[in-house]
Amino acid sequence: MNNSDHKILFIIPTFFFQENYHKDLFYSELPIKTLQVSAILKKRAKISTDFLDLRFEKELLPTYSQIKVDLVNFEEKLIKLLEHNFIEQVETIFLIMDSSYQFLQTVLIANILKKKFPAIRLIVAGQHPTAMSVDFSGKRSEFDMIIVGEPESAISELINFNYFSKTKKLNHPSVIHSSNMYDLNKLPFPDYSAYLTKYDFRDFFHFTIHASRGCPFHCSFCKIMRTRFRNFSFTHFIKRFEQLQKIVLNSNPSLPKISFLDQSYNSAILGTKILHHIIENKLNEIFNFTCQTRIEIIAKHKELLELFQKARMVPGFGLESANKQLLLEMKKTRNPTNYLKKLKEILEFYKSISEPYCRINTLAGFPGEDSNTFDDTIRFLKNSAFHENIQISPSLFINDPICSVYDNMAYYEQTYGTIFQKEWWMIQSDPLKNAVLPKPSKNYSKLQLIDDYKEKYLPLLTEFRLSPFKPLVHWKTYHNKWKNDLIKKN
Q: Are strands 212-213 and 230-231 parallel, antiparallel or unpaired?
């Protein structure tokens, strides 16, 4: 069989027990890793690919919001959906997991496929398989291949070995560790056109681009796959950037926005050069831009603030916590006092201008968090960031198996009395709630955390001049219900 005869179906899983808040968080994100792998397969091996994004398949949507998963109903609807999408022509199904939240549904899909379509090869890759490949291996595994690490590198190796031209399946799962880092300057443009032809939602998706991959910093809460930090060449980046601009203008004509996904935008060699490119080519008159950057980098190069302003680039700053001990535990900085001082100076700049705004990210419920550390952060935000031109963006710490906290749980248990829910992704209930620590510290329960989070952040969220009303209602409803459910359990 030639590669050109081989057809791959990418299934993008979601998760069960969904509420409106989950949809606000996850539905606008494009499956960029999947689109990137699809582009490599098409360009290098001339393989035909297709997509099935389970977030948007109407037949399945009712099964996601039930209190208890109806396995029979989900299986029947999924099989009909696959048959409608010509499953009989598919040789390989690829599932790339962006989050451990998708674990239960991914395994369920694999069980159904193994039973109903045993001849099809199943490959799983992404965040969770990289962190916990053991969850997918074993003699009874439904998967033929488990990819650990960057899927682009592994796929290239499989193409070199003519894997997709072979028809024979292995009797046991093969675990493939990506041995090399993919050359970013050889990455083809992601397969947006094929995906957006099928899921053509106007002014809905969140479009992103990288100037680099990996991160030179090592925050202990980070959920991003660990890879060597490397940069695109300016020539290759601009080519991708120009292609993406056309896609965005076509898909999001009402609000053309591009977000840089670099973990530390100004650590990228191209960071400043891209800002100048945006300004010189007047892209700031057409698009809105966002990025994530580091407080200490901007503090050393204050001229970047004016460049951000001219480029209409909204920077996100990771405060995470204003408690000095937690900042050290998070490995966010070695000098918390100076770190907080420099952020205050940056925030004064954004208070003095009308646009663009800046965003402050905070992280609640990290191991060691208690009522005092939580209040330290709230106090800092009230005193220094409570302003209509500053967006406060809180989130709860997720004990993701790919972050360093997961590998060092014993330390936090001994030091702070933290209680963890290990293998939370296997529990059949809301994975976001399961991933939050049962007890961040000895005298601080999940109930206390959620109560503080809801009550103390809500007034801060409403001050921002562009706060969206509907998502804010969903945020409040979700956390209020969560709090009440925890009260009932206690």
A: antiparallel
Note if the pTM is more than 0.90: yes
Alpha carbon separation from 78 to 83, 94, 121, 211 (Å, rounded)? 9, 16, 17, 38
Number of helices followed by number of strands (H, E) in the chain? 19, 14
Q: Which of 484, 421, 479, 483 is nearest to 22 (CA)?
A: 479
Between 37-51, 110-124, 154-168, 246-260, the lowest mean confidence (pLDDT) is in 154-168
The CA distances from residue 230 to 73, 213, 321, in Å, are 46, 6, 28
Q: Which CATH class is domain 209-489?
A: alpha beta
| 335 to 214, 324, 360: CA distances (angstroms) | 24, 8, 19
Asked if the 3-177 domain carries CATH number 3.40.50.2300, the reply is yes
pLDDT interval class at 155 (50, 70, 90): very high
Residue 449 phi/psi, 5° resolution? -60, -50
Three-state DSSP at 416 gives: helix
Alpha-carbon dihedral sign for residues 337, 360, 320, 301:
negative
The tokens describing 490, both together, are: 């206690």
Q: Is residue 137 within 8 Å of 146, Cβ to Cβ?
A: yes
- Structure token pair of residue 417: 């009395």
Residue 356: cis peptide before it, omega within 30 degrees of 0? yes
* Structural domain spans, the chain: 3-177, 209-489
